[in-house]
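Input for the complex:
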Amino acid sequence: MNNRIIQAYKQAPWRVQIQWIGLFLLALVLITAIIGIYLNVSAQAATSGRMIQFIERDSEEIANEIAELTANLAKAKSAERMLERAEAMGFRMLDPAAAVYLEIPGFDPSTDLELAPPRVNTISESPIIRSAYKSSLWEWFVKQIWQMPASSLEPAGESVP
Amino acid sequence: MNKQSLWRYVFVTAACAIFGIAIVVQLVRINYTTYAKELLEKSQDYQGVEKTIYPPRGTIYDRSGHILATNKIGYELGIELKSVVDPESIAFATASILENMDYAAIYQIASTEKREIENRYFVLSSYVSKEDIEELEKLEETYALRRTETKSFKPSLSGLVWTPMQQRTYPEGTLAANVLGFYNYFSRETAQGVYGVEEAYNRLLTGKPENIYLPNDPYLVEVLPEINPGASLVLTIDREIQKMLEDTLAEAIDWSGAVGGTIIVADPETGEILGMASTPFFNPNAYWEYEETFPGITPYNRAIGTAYEPGSVFKVITMAAALDSGVADLNTTYNDATGVYWVANSWPIYNWNYGAWGVQDMTGCMQYSLNVCLAHLAIDLLGPDLFYQYLQAFGFGRSSGIDLASEANYPLRIPENNQWVELDLATNSFGQGIAVTPIQMVTAVSAIANDGKMMTPHVVRSVVDRGQQYDVAPQVINTPVSAETARTLTDMLAIALEEEASIALVEGYRVAGKTGTGEIPTELGYTSSQTNTSFVGWGPVDDPKFVVYVWLEKPTISQWGSEVAAPVFRDVVEKLVVLMRIPPDNIRLGLTSE
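Predicted:
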């Protein structure tokens, strides 16, 4: 009797096989998806890392080039060179007796040199790289989980900066 | 599934499992072998490098923004041992192209044993010029061609590496070198500013070097911490005025036969130094030639580094003390009947020409530069206490506080010192027996030109750091005399110059000033005929915009300040008024009254 009941409710062997295969494939797809996402994020992180290295190298090269050009420009505009060029162009030193003085209202020759704005309070800048690119997938996932309740508990209304 | 198929599955599974287990066992085994530590250490070399990042040194500008000191590209040259293929070629190339490179020493480094496994790096030179690196690059190209032709690994510069970085340069050459100082950059670890602004502001200019770890693993790469460049400085020096002063000083030394000299131009209202020329001139781009340019005890900057007996220019201070204390006024007279003043009935004081000048008022005493008159003022009217109080109020006996390194200071000998004698009071009154630096004289005299207010002399006008500019505010050191005294004395000295028809007079501009001829002491006393000739003057008298100090040491053309230093003062002022855009008095006062 019992065998009959079991036999009546027992699934056909091919159905069981298909279920197992289905479960296996599902797991495989999930694992593949996770591996795929992980590889994708890792590749992005690695690419960003390389980009940073290249940009920093470029930045250093540019800084050196700017320094070189600035030094060359300063040399080309040095007092000695400017005097030589002025003389070559036919200028001559002013004879004080021949000077003509004019009053120009509003002109102040003693204006202070300003190379930068005067001192003010500064606000620290935000980081350049987003934290998502600096953490592993697992770290990112955990962070999102922890952030979720915090953001959902935040009261609605005006936020204070 | 039949038994045969099952056996096959079991066999393949078992083979894979054994292979996997073998890998795991091997991984574990490697970690416990004697080579594990060595392997771990070796792997560290490939994981990244520790590096010190030196921020670029700050730029130095003149007051108009012209660059006086900046950085240019230079290269660090080193040997990376693991990449060395041909030590002979490396040693030959570096020794033949670069100066101060020894073939044997480089060969020894490049051929270090076990170089194949050692990831070691040797610095050959911290700074190599762009031109030298270009020559090395050309040589490497030639070697590459030769290797292709001969199909061999040699000759090769593989392992010789050059890394670009910034090195100090002074685009104006010798201009203002005595103010700037220099930066001894050959060894980056010990590099620092020497003399002048470079030393005085070394920490600000250098910035803060950072030690960082640079991983090769891209996953570990992070943005480098923000490294601020060294602060930049804007000086009070005006490049055009500085050049004019250096040219004038060079001509004056050539003409007068002096062994050295200095000229300072300052703004009495603020204490700003507009120009400071001093011999010998020096090119800080070749700072390693320092000892040849400054042999022995030659000061780097005479204007601040040499104390000397100034002579009669110091009478300005004595007269200021006498007028301000009220012991004398414009109408006070002195009868120079004999041309000699006896100190404590023991020591005679004579005038410059050993003559007697009769009855003179205070203007006459200054006009004819009478030593006996000034000795009388100091001893009979002021007395030692009051006289030295004024000297200290004018800043003598202590540093002027100028923001330049290596300022000299000669202590003031006062009655409290055991060595002081009454004769000192007499000789000090006319600038003998007392040693001062030119900058101390300029600072003190600026008080007379600035209504009695003595300003701190300074050469830095602004500091630019992290994108912000900090301006240096002028500071009053002291007010040694009243504004009334200062104006009275200025007028007195202007009249003295005019009545004397001094060579120092400048057409169109009313100036006040005083000559000085200081005898140079030897071991036997004042026996030398050599002198220090000086002139201090300021103008325009109604609203002084400049103080000019000239000092020429041991001129041969004449021993008198009135003949050597005074005409140099006139030359300087004639050019200075054009550069400072100061119209002649009649035009300026006319414009003001309008």
